[in-house]
């Protein structure tokens, strides 16, 4: 009989989307779990979010487009866990599912990719910039307006990372804006001309962080994932994701929320948020608050305060039923 405290080695199947980025992320988790002695294989799947390439995601609606099919696989026992970009995961998971792990964050910032110009200010007259998110669109528009660049157009850009880069290379855009994290994971950091500081393009809630979802009735998996958890990241993204939930955030709402530790080990979390109205009639609303955070409840309380501050400053969550 063994009296060791080492958790038992498990045989684990990870459900994953089949984009290059999703596969990289699943392989990354696989390698880490294998280092802990588990046996891991991948189950590749295509989700609704991957299939809809002709319409803007903000129109077809809702968070969770990339998540649902993976949850069905967990539900049916075809897979044990799903690795997600947290940015794409709704704050409230369906009943019976939990977020078992948040891993250390990759670069959360937005990146400027272009072969013709190194930054916004160098864009030629009448240039076209591509981006897929309303958040980036609203923040870019604000920055361009500040430069007096009404001539620059911002156009939608869809598809996985490779598709977006191809559209740029074909000349459909002068520049595009993407998450730095995805480019770095795929070894494409060489394509980044400029990373936006959070003050200039405030990141989306959860950007750059990976989360692992399991069924709530699998304590064995939750235990196996414990060594992969990075609590400082978890507290940051919990604060950010609370803002998104409290604002009724979906990809049809331009909303940014970004938390950072004021100083290493200070326990002081600063949370910045920005909201733009989807019609673009109102200016961007920005707020910032900070608080000591030592657990998830405190992180969520900070997120709640920031959401209230956003509303007090004029941000309007969508009407119920919208
Ligand atoms: N919405 C798609 C998506 N989901 C996660 C990432 C990047 C990686 C990450 O944020 O962890 C991207 C691509 C992008 O926004 O450019």
Describe the protein.
- The chain has 10 helices and 13 strands.
- β6, α5 and β7 form a beta-alpha-beta unit.
- It has a 5-stranded mixed β-sheet with strand order 2-1-3-10-4, sandwiched between helices.
- It has 3 domains: 1-103 and 208-229, D-Maltodextrin-Binding Protein, domain 2 (3-Layer(aba) Sandwich); 110-195, D-Maltodextrin-Binding Protein, domain 2 (3-Layer(aba) Sandwich), CATH 3.40.190.10; 231-311, 2-Layer Sandwich (Double Stranded RNA Binding Domain).
- By secondary structure, the chain is of the alpha/beta class.
- Helix content is 31%, strand content 23%.
- Mean pLDDT is 91; it is low at 59-63.
- It is globular and about 65 Å long.
- The longest helix has 17 residues, at 296-312.
- Bound molecules: the ligand NCc1[nH]cc(CCC(=O)O)c1CC(=O)O.
- Ligand PBG is lined by residues 85, 87-88, 178-179, 181-182, 207-208.
Protein traits:
single chain, 322 residues, alpha/beta, D-Maltodextrin-Binding Protein, domain 2, Double Stranded RNA Binding Domain, five-stranded mixed beta sheet, 10 helices, globular, binds the ligand NCc1[nH]cc(CCC(=O)O)c1CC(=O)O
What's the level 1 CATH class of the largest domain?
Alpha Beta
- Total strands: the figure is 13
Number of domains: 3
Bound molecules: ligand PBG
Strand portion = 15-25%
Runs with pLDDT <50, length 5+?
59-63
Q: Can you tell me the CATH topology of the largest domain? A: D-Maltodextrin-Binding Protein, domain 2
Oligomer: single chain
What number is the mean pLDDT? 91
Largest sheet: 5 strands, mixed
Instruction: Indicate the radius of gyration in whole angstroms.
Output: 20 Å
Count of DSSP-assigned helices: 10
Question: CATH H-level name of the largest domain... which superfamily?
Answer: Periplasmic binding protein-like II
Structural class: alpha/beta
Quote the distance from N terminus to C terminus. 59 Å
Share in helix: 25-40%
Which of globular, elongated, flat, extended, rod-shaped describes the shape? globular
């Amino acid at each position: 009989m063994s009296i060791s405290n080492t958790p038992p080695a498990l045989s684990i199947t990870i459900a994953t989307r089949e984009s290059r980025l999703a596969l990289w992320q699943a392989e990354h988790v696989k390698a880490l779990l294998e280092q802990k002695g588990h046996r891991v294989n991948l189950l590749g799947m295509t989700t609704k979010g991957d299939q809809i390439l002709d319409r803007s995601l903000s129109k077809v609606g809702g968070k969770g487009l990339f998540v649902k099919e993976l949850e069905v696989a967990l539900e049916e026992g075809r897979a044990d866990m799903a690795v997600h970009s947290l940015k794409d995961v709704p704050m409230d998971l369906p009943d019976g599912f939990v977020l078992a792990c948040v891993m250390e964050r990759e670069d959360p910032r937005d990146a400027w990719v272009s072969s013709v110009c190194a930054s916004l200010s160098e864009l030629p007259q009448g240039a076209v910039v591509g981006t897929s998110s309303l958040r980036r669109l609203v923040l870019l528009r604000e920055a361009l307006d500040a430069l007096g660049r009404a001539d620059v157009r911002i156009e939608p850009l869809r598809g996985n990372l490779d598709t977006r880069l191809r559209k740029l290379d074909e000349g459909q855009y002068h520049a595009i804006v993407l998450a730095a994290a995805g480019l770095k994971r795929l070894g494409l950091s060489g394509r980044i001309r400029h990373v936006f500081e959070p003050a200039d393009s405030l990141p989306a809630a959860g950007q750059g962080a990976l989360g692992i979802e399991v069924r709530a009735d699998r304590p064995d998996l939750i235990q196996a994932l414990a060594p992969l958890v990075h609590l400082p990241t978890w507290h940051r993204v919990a604060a950010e994701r609370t803002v998104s939930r409290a604002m009724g955030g979906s990809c049809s709402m331009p909303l940014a929320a970004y938390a950072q530790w004021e100083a290493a080990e200070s326990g002081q979390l600063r949370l910045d948020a920005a909201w733009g109205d989807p019609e673009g009639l109102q200016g961007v609303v920005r707020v910032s608050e900070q608080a000591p955070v030592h657990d998830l409840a405190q992180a969520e309380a900070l997120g709640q305060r920031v959401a209230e501050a956003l509303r007090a400053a004029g941000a309007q969550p969508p009407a119920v039923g919208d």
